[in-house]
Amino acid sequence: MRTSLNIPQEVLEEFDETWESQGLESRSRAVREAIQEYVERHVTLEDVEGEVVAMVVFDYEHTLVIGDLHDIQHEFQDVIETMTHTHQGEWCLESVFCRGEAARIRELTYRLRDFDAVGRANVVFLQAE
């Protein structure tokens, strides 16, 4: 199937440099792999159930979203055990270590992804029962 996408030029240039440096045969192949990785990550996030230990990592532009992020962190304090934070200029990187119901951690991850000022929010399950 053929499709078209609107991608900012600088993102496309970086994407091309990445797949070419990895020796992939074409942009199409790289896009297929990226889509597959996205689907697998989403399915894993949706499939995990029960009590889990997880780490949610996200980056964000500090001045645009910090108040809202503090509110969310307080809202999810039932599953957040500890956090680490570092920054470079106005961009921050946080890792949030969680323990609790997978559904609650999934909700936290989706809430973080909902902000335009959050670049990425990914979750790694360290232990799933």
TrEMBL record:
GO terms for molecular function: DNA binding. Keywords: DNA-binding, Transcription, Transcription regulation. CDD domains: RHH_NikR_HicB-like. The keyword Chloroplast does not apply. Residues 55-124 form the Transcription factor NikR nickel binding C-terminal domain. Residues 1-41 form the Ribbon-helix-helix protein CopG domain. InterPro entries: Acetolactate_synth/TF_NikR_C, ACT-like_dom_sf, Arc_rbn_hlx_hlx, CopG, CopG/NikR_regulator, Ribbon_hlx_hlx, TF_NikR_Ni-bd_C. SUPFAM superfamilies: ACT-like, Ribbon-helix-helix. Coiled coil: none annotated. It comes from the Archaea. Belongs to the transcriptional regulatory CopG/NikR family. PANTHER family: NICKEL-RESPONSIVE REGULATOR. This is CopG family ribbon-helix-helix protein. The lineage of its organism: Archaea, Methanobacteriati, Methanobacteriota, Stenosarchaea group, Halobacteria.
